[in-house]
Amino acid sequence: MPLEISGVLDRSQVAKFQALLKQARWVDGSATAGHLSQQVKHNRQLAETDPLAIELGNVILDVLERHPVFVSYALPARIVPPLFNAYRGGEHYGAHVDGAIRPVAGHPIRIRTDISVTLFLADPDEYEGGELVIQQEGGELCAYKLPAGTLLAYPCGCLHHVEPVTRGERLASFFWVQSMVRRGDQRAMLFDLDQAIQRLRATVPGHETILALTAHYHNLLRMWADP
What we know:
Blueprint: E1 3-5, H1 11-21, E2 26-28, H2 35-38, E3 41-42, E4 44-46, H3 51-65, H4 68-74, E5 76-79, E6 83-87, E7 92-96, E8 101-104, E9 107-112, E10 115-120, E11 127-129, E12 132-135, E13 141-144, E14 151-155, E15 160-162, E16 165-168, E17 170-179, H5 184-203, H6 208-224
Antiparallel strand pairs: 1-14, 2-4, 3-7, 4-6, 5-17, 6-17, 7-15, 8-9, 10-14, 10-17, 11-16, 12-13, 12-15
């Protein structure tokens, strides 16, 4: 189940990101795509080793490390350093599935991709088209075009595409998470349980069932996690 998290970056951070990215040195986005994806990927990216990509990516990672909802949903063990892309003038990304294993540029590291993440960096009224369309279980298609600073996380393995951008420019960061819990259904159960505990703590602080539910959560996490 995809998860939207608003306000991951505040408006001042978004404005700074946009100003820097509009002066960035973009390269062909197909450089980081697999063989099949190269045939349908038509956009621009910052090179993985671009100092600006590293600088802005570190800002995102620092925010997410302290974001309780993201941590609860993803249970991250490793995160591929954030990448950045841009679409305009009809650029698009056809239907594809993200690769199961991602290398990290400059490091002898391979990361299993359990969760895909898109962080929107342009508001919906700044461009036309550019919807991220994800095929859900059962074949239903859901389109996402979210406010700048909003993050969308969803399980890897979903068929998805980005519609052509016909006006303006779509800016976004994208990356992948290797979770401590490999199975998506187990992550979903843990997330629902954790969110229920947080709601109970907010509405009935000190309730006797909070400790029991928290113990249950950690026992399940201990059973399923592979840090």
